[in-house]
Every structure is written in structure tokens, then in C-alpha cells.
Amino acid sequence: MKKTAILVTAAIGIVASLGSCSKKITTPVASSAAYSSFETQCLGVEHDGSQTLRAWGKGTSKGDAIEQAKKNAVYDVLFKGIKGTGECNQTPLVPEVNARERYSEYFNPFFSDGGEYRKFVKEEKGGEASRLQAKGKSISNYGVIVTVDREGLRRQLEKDGVLKEGTRH
């Protein structure tokens, strides 16, 4: 029994030390998941109102998939809302039906590659270790942990006339 406890303690120590290595490993998921769609999940709400989310994106490369996941996170905060319990249950910032289409002149450049959406989302530290990957023959699907600045988005949309000032969602 004592040997088992020592072995378990040693194994935990080895795993912990490997976890602190500078090279992080992306956690693979079944390859069939590369062709699936996943909902954005709320992991928490910070004191400043920003939301920590696990968002998913598909792409032909790792970089494309991760950028798409960031876009999806911002899109979901803006137009879909984030489902969850307690603080995580958030309505969309832009609750207007068909707002994406109605304000397409604003949102098309906003969500373009390198667009303004990038100011409001950042990938959490932990990089590779916080990523999930499902890779098929021609597509990769990555789940990444990001933080979306919900209050910053709201202020920007008010400033740009998409939301009325003082709107709280």
C-alpha cells in the first residue's frame, strides 16, 4: 500500500513537471469531430464583465481555425448570447433580429481577416495546453480558451451608432 502511494505521488509529480515545460501539447480529439460543430461554452465571467469562453473554429490550417474560433466567440457574444448558468447566461449584446445583415456595412469589415473584432478577443495564456484539436483529412477544428471584452464591445457599438447609448445586455 505504501509503495502504491509513493508511485502515485511520483506519477503526479512527473505529470505536474511535464505540465510546466515550455513546450505545450495540443490535446487531440477524435478525427470525426473535425467535421462537427460545437457551441461556444462559457467558462466564467470576470469582474470587469469580460467573458472567458471555449470557442471552436474550423480551417484548413491551425492558424485559420484558431482565428475563426476567435471570430466565432465575438460573433456569439454579439448576436447569439452565451448560454450557461448564473453569470454565464448572457443575452446577445445586439438583440435586434437580423442585426448582422441590417448593419452589414459595419460588421463585414469588423469581422474581416485582421478586422476590428481582434481588439475585443484574446487567447488565454496556456496557449497550446488550453487547445483541443480535431483534425480530419482536409480540415482542422480547434477549441481555444479566449476572453471577450463584452463591455468594450458594447462601448464601441454605442460609439459607432449600432447600439443606443446606455443599452445594457
UniProtKB/TrEMBL annotation:
Superkingdom assignment: Bacteria
The name this protein goes by in its record: Lipoprotein
Species: Duncaniella muris
